[in-house]
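INFO  loader      accepted 1 record
INFO  loader      residues=112
INFO  predictor   begin
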Amino acid sequence: MKKIEAIIRKSKFKEVKEALHAVEVNFFSYWDVTGVGNEKQGHVYRGISYSTAEIQRRYLSIVVNDDFVQPTIDAIIKSASTDQVGDGKIFVLPVEEAYRIRTGEKGGASLN
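INFO  predictor   done
INFO  writer      dumping tokens
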């Protein structure tokens, strides 16, 4: 099992959620977060300068069986990409064990 953590643009969340459902990843948690990225300059929109030093993002936490890792990553990359600086990051971490509280199931079966 692996835990996939993704930080994406808030504006791409709906597309990412739909892409994850399409590859049968139907359960995940998410939070609204603010981060500091590499982009040092601001943007000007209608004559008003906006700082991009602190960026609003959405943080996704997804635990999947090993055979779902690459499809999950591919779905996130394809649906979250704008080809612009600030599209986000994906991190993959090992998960030693998982349990379903209701039934006591453990391992990969607890994720279904």
